[in-house]
Amino acid sequence: MDNQQVIELSQRYLMSTYSPLPVAFVRGEGCRLWDADGNEYLDFVAGIAVASTGHCHPRVVEAICEQAGQLMHTSNLYHIPLQAQLAQSLAEISCADRCFFCNSGAEANEAAIKLPRKWAGMNRSGECFEIITAKQSFHGRTLATLAATGQEKYQKAFRPLPPGFTYVPFNDVGALEEAISEQTCAVMLESIQVEGGINVPDDDYLPRVEDLCEEQGILLILDEVQTGMGRTGHWFGYEHADITPDIITLAKALGSGFPIGACLAKEGVASAFQPGDHASTFGGNHLACAAALATIDVIEDEGLVANAARMGSLLEELLTDELSEIDGFDHIRGRGLLLAVQVTPEVSAKAIQNQCLAAGLVVNAMGDDRVRLAPPLMISEADCQQAVAILADAVRKVAGNLNPHR
Questions:
Q1: Residue 131 forms beta bridges with which residues?
Q2: Does the N terminus or the C terminus of the chain have fewer Cβ atoms within 10 A?
Q3: Taking the complete model, does pTM exceed 0.90, yes or no?
Q4: Domains of the chain, each with CATH number or no CATH
Q5: Residues 29/332/226/36 CA torsion (nearest 10 deg)
C-alpha cells in the first residue's frame, strides 16, 4: 500500500482518537525513516522519545528475535529470568531497590498512584490518600492518571474523575507547602514537564521539594516516563537535581519501541505491595524484558547518555545561532535531547511541523507555539546540522521572513 491507501484504510476503520499527519512510515534505521511511497526522513521525534537507540538497532532486533523463538510469555504466575535481570539492572542505574513491570507509562503511573496509598495506610494515621501534582503536568490517559494530570483540557470530557488529587503551580515550593495536609501521602512531579511545554524547573526546586517531603513524612514520586533512559544527558532527569525520589516511573525508551513500563521504588516503600495488591498479565514478560535488557546494554556500551548531553548542547547552540535573527523565533528550552523551539504567538508550530515534514524532517508541534525535538540518542553532529538547516528554513517560510540567516 502507498501512503494514500493507508490513510484511506485508517480513516475507514480506526476510531478518531488521533489526528495523524498524512504519512505512513514503513521502515526505519538509526535516525532515518522511510514512508510507504519510498520517501526518506530524518527523525527528530523518535516515536515520542521512544526510539532512543535508533530505529531497529541490530542488537535490540537480535535480542527480540532470539527471545521470540524461545519463549514470549508465561505470565507472572511464574518466575521470569529476564525480568529478574532487568530489575537488577534498573536498580543498579537508579536510586531504587525494587521494580514492578507493566506495559506503558500510564500503567507505571497507575502503580505509582496505588503504592503510596497502600504505604500510607500502613505508616500514617487517619485517611491519607491525597497526591499533589502540578498544573500543566501530564501523567497518562487512564482515568486515574488523567485525574493526576493537571490540565483541564484533557479532563473535562471525562468527568467525574477519581478523587484524591490536588494541583499546584510547577516550580513553586511555597504553593506546594501550603497544599500539604494531613490527607497528603505523596507529591508526584515530572523532572521536566514535557507535554506541558518542556518546562525545566529552577535548579533548587526539586531539592527543596525533596526536603519538604522528608519533613512532612510523605513520598516523592518522579514521573520519568519521557525523561528517563538517558534523554536529558543523565540516566534519569532527577539526577540533574541530585535527589533520590521514593518512586520512579519509566516507559517509552525502556524497550526501544517494544511496549514496557516500570514502577521503581525504594525498599521501604516497595514493601507495602503484597501479593494481590497489583498485577499485570503481560507486564515484564520474556519478550519485553529481552528488548529492555538489550536497550540498556546498547545505551551503556555506545555511550548514549553522554552523547545525549553532547548533542543536546550542540543542537541548542546550532538552533540559537540559526534562528536568532528570524522573525517568529523566541527561544530554546529543555535539557539534553529534549528541546522545544518556542515561537511567537503569530507563528504556527503546526505549520512549521508540516513544512519540516515536506522537507524530510520529522518534528512535533506542541500546541500552537512550540516545536518539540526529541531525536534518537545516537544522533551525530551531521544529523543535528541537517535538522537545524531544515527547521530554520521552515520557521523562515512560516514567519514570512525571507532574509538570509546569519
A1: 165, 186
A2: C
A3: yes
A4: 3-56+303-399 (3.90.1150.10), 59-301 (3.40.640.10)
A5: -30
